[in-house]
Amino acid sequence: QSLPQQKLLTWLSVLECVEVFAEMGTARVWGEMGRWTIIVLIQLAKAILRLLLLLWYKAGIQTSPPIVPLNREQQQPLHPQDMEDNSSGKDQTYVGRRSSRVVRSLQSTPSLQSRHWGSPQQREESQSRRAEEMNQPPTPLGLQETIAESLYITRPLLHLLSLGVWGQRSWKPWLLSAVLDISSLSLLSDLKDLNRRERAELRRRTILLLYYLLRSPFYDRYSEGRILLLLRLLADYVPGIGFVTR
Which of 141, 190, 194, 228 lies 20 to 30 Å from 123, alpha-carbon distance? Predict the structure, then answer.
């Protein structure tokens, strides 16, 4: 990735980390009007950054969070003693003559901080496989897929606009947002040969469709009563979880 693209991803990650805090803080200081103002500004900034990544830098299907968190357990560096053992050419493994089982040799046992329970070959293979998956370039998007990703990126702005036009109690913003989400996923479903990160992102978006059951006005009219009834039944008839459900 180029340096400008990395900066865009960094700013996008920062916005996603602070947007809820900014919304709550603004509502506390400037009230409801300030809350909706900061929501619109943050969503507009996120949409602009994502469209730049999609159309200018050809970033493909974008994940959330934009920057994949670092797995520190997989990135543990070798300690100086381990590096000396590797450079000295000591055999790291011993193969049993009759069982053919591969075990670590006592001479090359690493320090406690970097010790693991798998064989060195398994760890090296898994690390190289993960590195290849992380470094895979994004899948090129055609016109249909670019439109689908653009719909997903602009959906929050269109949802906010519909809320301003029809109000928060109307079904139209809820329906518009759901139609845009489903349309985007349907258009992206034709893509083949996606890498692991992109497949995980599409699965995440599909699972997030369940959140529409918890969004107003559907939640206020249908889901709330059923969920509360289920919680009451659990509290009354299932021992041990009544305190939590109540």
Answer: 194
Rounded CA-CA distance 31/24 in Å is 10
Considering the entire predicted model, what is its pTM?
Answer: 0.76
- Distance spanning both ends of the chain, measured CA to CA: 50
pLDDT in tens, 129-155: 666 666 778 889 999 999 999 999 999
DSSP codes joined into one string, 210-245: GGGGGSTTHIIIIIHHHHHHHHHHHHHHSTT-HHHH
Q: What is the CA angle 184-61-74, rounded to 5?
A: 135
Please give the full DSSP string across 74-117, using - where no structure is assigned: TTPPPPHHHHHHHHTT---EEE-TTT--EEE-GGGPPPGGG--S
Strands (E), 32-183: 93-95, 102-104
Handedness of CA 126, 67, 152, 18 (dihedral sign): positive
Tokens of 58: 């050809």
Alpha-carbon distances of 58 from 82, 118, 197, 244, rounded to whole Å: 41, 39, 16, 47
Contacts of 162 (CB under 8 A, 6+ apart): 170, 172, 173, 176, 177
The set of residues, in sequence order, having a beta carbon less than 8 Å from that of 133 and lying 6+ positions away, is: 195, 196, 197
- pLDDT tens figures, 45-89: 999 999 999 999 999 999 888 887 776 665 555 445 544 555 554
